[in-house]
Structures are given as C-alpha cells and as structure tokens.
Amino acid sequence: MNTRSRVLAIALGLSLVAAACGSDADTGSSTDTSADTSTPSTDATEGTDAPAEMGTVTVYSGRGEDLVGPLMDLFEEETGIDTEVRYGDSAEMLLLIQEEGDNSPADVYYSQGAGFLGELAATGGLTPLPAEILDQVPAGLRSPGDDWVGLSGRARTAVYNTDELTEADLPDSILDFTDPQWAGRIGYAPTNASFQDHVTAIRALEGEDAARAWLEGLVANGAVPYENNTAILEAVAAGEVSVGLVNHYYLYRFLAEDPDFPVANKFFPNGDAGALVNIAGAGVLATTDQSEGAQALMAFLLSPIAQEYFAAETFEIPVVAGVEPDAELPSIDSLTLPEFDLNQLLDLQGTVDLLTEVGAL
Amino acid sequence: MTITTIDGHRPPRQGRAVTRGRVVRALGEGTFVRLLALTVGLSAALPLGYLVLRAWELGWTQRWEIITDPRTRAVLFDTLTLATAVTVTAVAISLPLAWLTTRTDLPGRRIWVVLTALPLAIPTYVGAFAMIGALGPRGIVQGWLEPLGVDRLPSIYGFGGAFVVLTLFTYPYVLLTVRAGYRRLDPSLEEASRTLGSGSFSTFVRVVVPQLRPSIAAGALLVALYVLSDFGAVSMLRYDTLTRALYVQYRGGLNRNTAAVLGLVLVVLTIAVLAAEQRFRGRESIHRLHGSGARSAMETQLGRWRWLALTGCTLLVLLALVVPMAVIGYWLWRGARVGEPLLPAWDLVANSLAASALGAGLTVVCAWPVAMLTVRSPGRFSRLIERLSWSGYALPGIVVALALVFFGAQRVPWAYQTMGMLVFAYMVLFLPQAIGAIRTSLLQITPSIEEASHLLGSGPIGTFRRIVLPLTRSGVIAGAALVFLTCMKELPATLLLAPTEFGTLATRVWTASNEAFLARAAAPALALVLLSSLPMIVLVLREADRREAQPTGSPRQVQTSNAGSATDDELTLTR
C-alpha cells in the first residue's frame, strides 16, 4: 500500500501546483505581464547553442495540414529553418493571436481569406513586409498597408449537379439566383468566411442596397444554409439542392476521390459580382522575434515551386506572374475584377450585421 | 457528522512530526480539504472570469441591447427547447433500457449492456455527419426507399436532426447513472410493494422511480448541459442555439465581446438548470442500507415481450452505433480506393492516449477534494464550489479554450501551450464527470468506519489511504474512464492549447474533414471511436460480471457488504 500512498501524495501535490497556477492567473495583477514578456525573448537568445543561426518559426495556419503541410516540410528541407505549424480554423487562429497579445508564440499568420488578415492588420498585429516580397504579388491581391500578401487565389463559383443541369441552365450573373426558378434549389454557407468575404465584396461593388436586396432575395427564395463548402458539395452531389455557392477548388478534391462525382463548377464571367477572386494569404506578426525566418517562409511560399504546388495539388490559382494554373482552371487575369481590390474586404462586421438583419444568420 | 469534529478530539501534534500528514494536521483536515476544493473551484471558474472581463469591455447599453435583442430571446427559447427535449427523451430511453439490461432475462443481455453504452464514444461532429449521410433528404435511407416512390425524406436539418443526433449520442450518460442506481436499489422494497398488491407498473412508478431520482437527475444534468455547450451537432444540422450564435460571433464577426455577453447568458441558463436539477434530485439518501442491498433482485421473465424489447434495443443500436460506424467504414473504403492508409499515424494515437490519460488523472485528483467537501460538509460554501466546478463543462469548448489562452499566455507564459496546459484545460472542461462518480462512492461509506480508523490511531492521511481510497476505487475508475473518453473526443481546446504540432486523433479528423478530405478522416475517426470505447467496454463488462457473480443474500455477504458493496466496480456517476 506504500507505493499507492506515494502516488497519491505526488498526484495531490501536482494538482495543487496545477491549481495554484490557475489561481495565480486569476488573481495576478496586470503588472507582471511586462515582467513575463521578457522571459520568452531571453529564452530565444539563449537558444542559440543549437548549430542553426535561427530559431523556430511558428506558423498559425487557418489552412489545413492536408493543403499546406507538404509545403511547410519542403520549406524546412530547403532552408534548414525549423518550422512549427499549428493548424486550425482561420478565425480561431486569429482569436488565438489576439488573446495571446504580446506573448504570442506565433511568427506567421496564414489565413484562408483576406478578411481576417485585414482585421489583424487593422489592429496593428502585422508588421510591414519588404519590397521584394510585396512586388511579386499584384496590387489588388495584397494589403494596402504592405503587411500581408495573397499566396494563392480562389475563385468564387457556383457548383451544380450535372445530372440535373448543364452549364447553360445557370444564369451568367450570381445576382440572378433570386429568380423564382431557383427557389429551394440553392445551397450557401452564411457562416463561412469565404461567403462572408464575397458578400463584403458585393457590398463594395454593387452597393449596400443591391447587396441587401440580393441577400433578401436569396433568403426569400429559400436558399438552404450549410455549415461549410464541403457540406454544400455533398448536398449538391446528393441532389438535396441543385446549385451551391462555393470556392472553386473543393470540387477537384471530390473528383480526385471519385471521378464520377456528379458536380461541376460554373465560373462567372469577368465583371460579374460572382467572379470574385479571394486569396489565401499570410503576414508576419508584429510581435515576432523570428522576422528573418518568417520572411524567408513568405518568400518561399511565393517561389515557383510553391506556386506550382498550389496549382497542381490544391487546385488553386497562382498569384505570381509566370506560373500557370492547372489546365482546367482559368488564369487569374481572366477572373479578377478590374476595379476591385481585396482591401475592401475589411468590413467583416458590417457583413455579419447585414447577414443577421436579413435573417441569413 | 464531519471529520473536523473527529479531528478535534485529536489535537494536532506540533513541531516534531515530520510526516507527510503534517500540513494536513496543522490545518485540520476539514480546512485542508476546503482549501484544495477552493483552489479547484477557482481554477474551474477561470472561463467565467474571462467572460466577465470581455463582456465588461462593452458599455452597459450595448450589453443590454444584446441581451434584450429579440433574436437573443428567440435563440434562448430554441436552446431551452432543444435541451429539454433531448434530456426528457434520453431519460425516456434510458429508464426502460436500464431495467431491461439489469433486471430482466433479455437475451444477450451482456452484449446489450455494452452496445447501448457505446454511442458515448462517438463524437457528435462525427455522428452528425453520419446522420446527414444516412438520413439526409437524399441520403442512404432515401435511396432504399426510392423504389417505393419516396423522392426525398423530410429535412433532417433544424430541430429534428439536432434533437435526434444529440439524443442518440448523449443518452448513455443517463443510462449509465440509472443502471448504477438500479444496482444500489434495495430489491426488498420492490418485493414489499408487490407483496402488498401493487402491480409491476405501479411498483415501478411509485417505488422504483422515486428511488432512482438522484441517478436520473445526475445523468439528465450531464445531458442537458452537454446540449447547451455542444457545437458540432447543432452547427452541422443548422439549429440555432446560444452556443452556435456565440460561435457565429467568434468566427464571422470576430466579436469577442458580443460572444462573451452571449456566454454569460448561457451561464445564467446553466444556473437555472442546476437549480432545477437540485429540486428534482430531492433529498439524497446518504449511506447505503446495511447489507440488504447486496442481494440480487429477482429477474423479471420477459416472455413474449422479449421480442418487443429486442426490437427496441436493435433499433437503438442500429441508429446510434451501426449507422455512424457504417459511414466511417464507407469513408475508409473510399479512401482505400485512392490509396489512403487504413491505419492512423501512430504518433496521433500516442498523443491522444497520453493527453487523455493525463487529463483523466488530473481531473480525478482535482475532483477528490470537491467531492469530499460536498459529501462531508454540505452547506453554502460546498454548494458554491460545486456550482463553480460545473462552469467549464457547461460552457462551449471555445470559451474555455480562449479563457485559458488569455490567462495562460499573459500570466504563465512558461506553461502556455504545453502538455500541462492542455491537461489542465481538460480538467476544467470535464471536472463534473469525475466529481459525480467519486461523490457517489463517498456517499456509500458510513462515516463511522472512518471514525473507527481515527480512534484506532490513524491520521487523516492514513485513513484516507487505508479506508477511503480502497472503498471509493470503483467511483474513481468510473470517473476516470468517462473523463478519458470525453478527452479523446475533445476538439476546440486541443486545437488552441496543445503544444504546437501536437496532433490528436480528434484534431486530425477535424482538419481532414474540414478541408473535404473525408477519406483521410476515416482512419483516425475509427481509431478514435475504438480506443475510447475500450475502457468503457471493460468497465461495463466488469459491472455486469460482478452483478452476476453475487450470491443472493448469504449471511456472510450481509456482514461484509458495507465495505464490499462500495468496492464493486460499478459505473457510479450519480452525484
């Protein structure tokens, strides 16, 4: 019985310590924050006993491991810079950075959409990037404050069930889905960041009133809300709905698993509000202590090898001139809205309010 | 009758005692337990503090606007409706099921005992996905019905789907507590009722159910609060609850302050649910009847009714277990065709097991003082601590995770995003599950045994080690198994608080399915369900075996039952 008691005593002791940490946090005054912040930075300078000059670059990625994991591995291999990636939801990773404040271990924030990057930039969370990184990306696909860049493009499309419809059956403008013939046949994802970015774009392009009218029309038309793009694709394939508003690349993953997947993409013609190209992009955090490694990662993600990876593996559209997209996909020039740039995607809160008002959320 | 008074007869030896018990003696055991429980309670209340802090950043008018917004009221109503419906149905399923699997000659009872408990191992986000695939308007079942002219099934989305999925994957909480409650019933009361001329139904309603009330209440509370904080099922099935509204604020608007106000509304709702449970539970019968309970009850012969019973059990297991497993199997098959591995990466398995085991360990250890306090010194203080301990369980995982991110990164950066932090988060999230289990075991120990130990010269630590711990082993094991299973499924806190690059099976299922790589999600999903089932299976089987091995009311059994009954490895989750 002696060992048991010892285990118990140790366990109780541990719980005390753990609990004490908790209550410390509860009662500690805000002044120790400044003292605490010095700890990680001294750690970082002491950490140089390793042969490599640079420390570890920590990435908070809103993009999944299946999409960008191989690229991150390749970066480590090519540059010898240690990289650690935390994968999660773009919004949650942003919340994480905001709650961590000055003590954030993250060096790079990699987001699914421009809206979240804009949000982080607006609160001073990002640090400006050097010209050699910025200059590679078309002006409309990077931050006006020069603190984030798009790394790959994703077009908004309508997917449709090929057993029911042909491309000719679909309207040429996304705004025409309010027509009664689509009643109950459209799937969309009102809580999804890509859709919300799209609504923000439509507000900027067509005006608040037109955007509101469109959304009200969709809701009145019985548009079916889904949790995310994947769920929409599944629903369109199953025939729950005939058409879905999604990002273009999800379809190709389904086709890779099942070539007979009965769904196709409709790209809207240039100039229509439906033809938005959003980006997945990244920025370096203002609180980073690894800016050199972080910038090396950014440069790598814009290099031909990474851009070709996006085209071939994730079915996205390369943002760097000279790298061709997958044969099935339109190039970025044929999709980008001429007078529109992603910096107008900042008013996320306005979009959420609008979606709430029309009853979509 | 508390230990403090006992301890008072033995003035603490000061100075020379260099034993482990010194601190305990110096403080007096009561104070020591109180201090520990307070620390645990405060830790569990961290998310509450965080919500208040974030909500405080808004002005009074803004806060008031959010609270009085008709939409908030509508969501509040919808949340209550769902929680009530799921809880009531879970009880309605569990009461007969517990009876069938403990008191009747149901064919294959041992198998049913296991199968009916297992849906708990299926995460709701996997379960919801499977249900949509099977029961969606154009799902698998519709395909079967197509020849009969069924073009599409009624929509699974909205209240119906959320209700079905949450009920199917949470009812075992009630089933387990009620089954344990049945085992503790004294069959002689039922027999007396029958002898006095009551029919079996009226005996059930008038004698059995009232005695089972604490067990029902305990399980129902776990279910109700689970529903309040679930995000996986309600988001996929598109039913608006407070938790979903809160996530929409976090995810879309990035509005931490509005989300915090909604979180506080959820806290108020939780307090109401806890109060309702307290009322329903009624007065707790403390300490088991000496001896008589050790007798096995008579088995009811089902006769022709067994076919009905079997059909019911089969239907339930089909929906809650076979359907989700079949859908996972279908993903796996789809993946195998394109060359995805059939086994998950071993580091994910190891990470999941390690984090969940440590989580279960810490949770049980932290649950001890709280359980001890609520049993031995009931009162206002112990009620406060108990309520605080529920706050993590009743809040959505994302709130608990963000709260610990905030406190962790700002105040204890050296511990932030370490394994310790993750395990601590699990403790905050699942504490009540362990408290309930340990508490029930403690209730069954007559304080006189401990008093005897004290009088015979044992100190508080010695008594704890030699008497209390062995007698509550079953509760500790049951609590640990339940917390382990829940940790395995946990997602939001693991995503935010685990060490960077520390993947678990649950996070792998999430990242893969979120990006439409369903085939890659299959292997980890299957491993997740199987591994979290294992401790459950072992435990449930041990319970069933123990029951069957019990001799019927031999005098020797009567003598030892006071201690022996409590060491039975039963799933005692009753609070």
Supply database-style keywords.
heterodimer, A: 361 residues, alpha/beta, 11-stranded mixed β-sheet, 13 helices, 11 strands, 15% strand, globular, B: 575 residues, disordered C terminus
Task: Please render the helix and strand layout as text.
The complex is a heterodimer of chains A (361) and B (575).
Chain A: H1 2-27, H2 32-46, E1 57-61, H3 65-79, E2 83-87, H4 90-100, E3 108-111, H5 114-122, E4 126-127, H6 131-134, E5 149-161, E6 186-188, H7 193-206, H8 208-220, E7 224-225, H9 229-238, E8 243-247, H10 250-257, E9 263-267, E10 277-285, H11 291-302, H12 304-313, E11 317-318, H13 348-357
Parallel strand pairs in A: 1-2, 1-3, 6-7, 6-8
Antiparallel strand pairs in A: 3-10, 4-10, 5-8, 5-9, 5-10, 5-11
Chain B: H1 3-8, H2 22-27, H3 29-44, H4 46-56, H5 60-68, H6 70-103, H7 109-115, H8 124-135, H9 140-145, H10 159-184, H11 187-195, H12 200-229, H13 232-236, H14 242-253, H15 256-281, H16 305-337, H17 346-376, H18 380-394, H19 397-411, H20 419-443, H21 447-455, H22 460-471, H23 473-489, H24 492-497, H25 505-514, H26 518-549, H27 555-567
Helix pairs in contact in B: 3-17, 3-18, 4-15, 4-19, 6-10, 6-12, 8-10, 8-16, 10-12, 11-12, 12-15, 14-15, 16-26, 17-18, 17-20, 17-23, 17-26, 18-20, 19-20, 20-23, 21-22, 23-26, 25-26
The counted number of beta strands of chain B is: 0
Task: Kindly estimate the percentage of residues of chain B that lie in beta strands according to DSSP.
Answer: under 5%
The total beta strand count of chain A reads: 11
Average pLDDT, all residues of chain B: 83
Uncertain runs of chain B are 1-19, 289-293, 549-575
Helix- and strand-based class of chain A? alpha/beta
What is the succession of H and E elements of chain A? HHEHEHEHEHEEHHEHEHEEHHEH
Low-pLDDT runs of chain A: 1-52
Largest sheet of chain B: none
- Helical percentage of chain A: 40-55%
Helix content of chain B: over 70%
Largest interface: A-B, 83 and 82 residues
Q: Provide the gyration radius of chain B in Å.
A: 24 Å
Net shape of chain B: globular
